[in-house]
Amino acid sequence: MEKMSRVTTALGSSAISGRTMFCHLDAPANAISVCRDATQVVVAGRNIFKIYALEEDQFVEKLNLRVGRKPSLNFSCADVMWHQMEENLLATAATNGAVVTWNLGKPSRNKQDQLFTEHKRTVNKVCFHPTEVYMLLSGSQDGFMKCFDLRKKESVSTFSGQSESVRDVQFSMKDYFTFAASFENGNVQLWDIRRPDRYERMFTAHTGPVFCCDWHPDDRGWLATGGRDKMVKVWDMTTTRAKEIYCVQTIASVARVKWRPEKKFHLATCSMMVDHNIYVWDVRRPFIPFATFEEHKDVTTGIVWRHQHDPHFLLSGSKDSTLYQHMFKDATRPVDKANPEGLCFGLFGDLAFAAKESLISSDSNRKPYPGGDRRYPIFFFKKPDRTEHFAHVSSALSVFETDLDSNRMDWFVKTAQLYLLCGKPFAELCDHNAKVAQELKRPQVSTTWTMLRIMFSDPANLTTGPNHPLSKLGTLPLMNSFNMKEMNSGMGTESRLERSKGESRQDNIHLEPGNSLISINNEDNEETEGSEGQAEYMFGDAELDDDDLYSMEHDNQTEEQEYTLPQEAFQLRHEIMDNPSAPEHLQQDKADSPHVSGNEAEVTCLTPIESFSLISISQPLFSPHLPASFFCPIVREMLSYYAEQGDVQMAVSVLIVLGERIRKEIDDLTQEHWYMSYIDLLQRFELWNVSNEVIKLSTCSAITCLNQTSTTLHINCSNCKRPMSNRGWICDRCHQCASVCAVCHHVVKGLFVWCQGCSHGGHLEHIMNWLKSSAHCPAGCGHLCEYT
């Protein structure tokens, strides 16, 4: 094979040219790297290891490094790096833990040069020093980083990250001795290659694994990191503490991040899963990508800018077995398709509306927003080059404020905390939840819970306790009452009957259980002088206590036994006259009364028998043996109504309380949507316990598995800093208890707070009190611990 020619100048002697093009590979690619003169690219994967020449309009295969009848696992590459100083030198990270270097100048077919097998697990990353020819750095899944001198047969330094795995290592472009490493536990460490015993600095960069990092090629202190939390963060490392200066929110886990040459604020990213596109971001405007490359059909695994001084060509490899060269001028610009109007609700119900200034500048009623005039863009550019800057758009913002008390969500939090969803009989759960809703001034919800108890409770066992009056009556059919305590006459004034002194009457008619029940109570008519009241209409359990469900009195059992049924159920009416008047004996009684005027005595009145049939009547509205499934369609419509109104709390609570009674009536997708919406609201209000209870009680299989994922926690020993096993709190290496409080030095029994940075921890209360007065670790290790 011919040796590749050196490029002594950056772009002066040979300007890079080309177009957007691609070629099909023999297998999916895991990583790519480009040579210094930008004329060739190496593609590595589990089953591919080839070098392609970058010509004007196509890729041309130059060399297949995967040779031999039966290639070993040393050819199965997780990462590849082409040395930027020595044109014939490559390094690969093998999946079997080997670090292999390749010399393209060898005359034989097999270009393998040196083999280092010191790592015990897969090597995730290899990195050459940018200026030192023989220095190679590797990071492995075993948690160690090793520095190799290619003139020797073994590593010269070993760095222990005190974590489960190292995801990425990168030498600094400006500091000769410094390199950065990202870890599975979310930390980023800075090391000095002269001090392998301890890192220089460590900070928590992401909530989850940090998959990649990249030093800015021009700015000495900027470090970009990407993680599983779907964020790209830019850190300023020149300060005493790492300072986050920019943050970009993406839509998927970030697998690779590369700064764009010659553009200080631009960087390219690709995702580890779900999203196949490559995005170029302007970190000053993190909410929308600056440019997008959408050619790949599967996950992009490697990205690299073709030349370190050319921002117009990007190379990428993918699991779809393609290798692409992207021209930046052919990229999609998402900002061109973005909606120029925006609408958003604030936390307290305020509504913000943004639109082009030209659309609403004529509105004379607009008042200046107290937050300041933001009608003009934040960034101004000297050169209006559309290809390198965002479009210049002026927008106006209108804010519509609402009364703070009109949309308060206190009822949601209190309801979530006070509702009972399990642990008691169905009737008691409904009663309790109805009472909670009533106390929070939500009468419709309270009535709904009461109606659910009536519908789905067993009519033969509707008792609320051994001391409840209903429990003394035996088994009675459930029925609704129509109770009219006082009647207004059609003439306007109310006429009352006053019994003679000492006369007491209680008329009760008992029929067989299960039949109609007619009860007459005349005690309410024995009122004091001048008492008046409106007629009350009470239907069922919605407005009455349980005592009013049954119009029965057992205060005087002896009188009840003396009462005998009349021969006729209803007495014959008196003869109807043209000018009907009250019966003579009633007129006489009323006229003789000193409290009734003559006009009132002439008012038309009902006979005692007629008033008996109207004052109090109770009868069943349905058969006591009506199945509960009869009400399921109504309940389904009710749940849909609450969900459409936005009250998913009521819909989910009823789903859990009713359980199997209603579960089959609602499809699983709808249930899952309601559950996810309610759980999201609970987590926004930080009601973690209630959220976990809802997940456990869920009737939807897709929800019950939520609290069974992402629960693995990797803990290091506080003494030797090595990862702990899953068998307990005794370290396998140093045989010391790792759950010792750093403040009181006693073994923690209960809640244990653990710092991911330094591995020290202790009692929750002790650590909280300590951090109120000091920011350093109580164990004296010097780490700046944070409790959030």
From TrEMBL:
One GO MF term: ubiquitin protein ligase activity
Intracellular or extracellular location(s): Lysosome membrane
Record-linked InterPro entries: WD40/YVTN_repeat-like_dom_sf, WD40_repeat_CS, WD40_repeat_dom_sf, WD40_rpt, WDR24
Family membership: Belongs to the WD repeat WDR24 family.
Domain of life: Eukaryota
Recorded GO CC terms: cytosol; GATOR2 complex; lysosomal membrane
PROSITE patterns per UniProt: WD_REPEATS_1 (PS00678), WD_REPEATS_2 (PS50082), WD_REPEATS_REGION (PS50294)
Pathway: Protein modification; protein ubiquitination
Function: Catalytic component of the GATOR2 complex, a multiprotein complex that acts as an activator of the amino acid-sensing branch of the mTORC1 signaling pathway. The GATOR2 complex indirectly activates mTORC1 through the inhibition of the GATOR1 subcomplex. GATOR2 probably acts as an E3 ubiquitin-protein ligase toward GATOR1. In the presence of abundant amino acids, the GATOR2 complex mediates ubiquitination of the NPRL2 core component of the GATOR1 complex, leading to GATOR1 inactivation. In the absence of amino acids, GATOR2 is inhibited, activating the GATOR1 complex.
Gene3D superfamilies (alphabetical): YVTN repeat-like/Quinoprotein amine dehydrogenase (2.130.10.10)
EC top class named in words: transferase
Organism: Eleginops maclovinus (Patagonian blennie)
Start-end of each WD repeat: 116-158, 203-245
Keywords: Autophagy, Lysosome, Membrane, Metal-binding, Repeat, Transferase, Ubl conjugation pathway, WD repeat, Zinc, Zinc-finger
PANTHER family per UniProt: GATOR COMPLEX PROTEIN WDR24
Reaction it catalyzes: S-ubiquitinyl-[E2 ubiquitin-conjugating enzyme]-L-cysteine + [acceptor protein]-L-lysine = [E2 ubiquitin-conjugating enzyme]-L-cysteine + N(6)-ubiquitinyl-[acceptor protein]-L-lysine
UniProt keyword Zinc-finger, yes or no: yes
Protein known as: GATOR2 complex protein WDR24
Enzyme Commission (EC) number: 2.3.2.27
Entry-linked SMART domains: WD40
Chain spans, region Disordered: 489-532
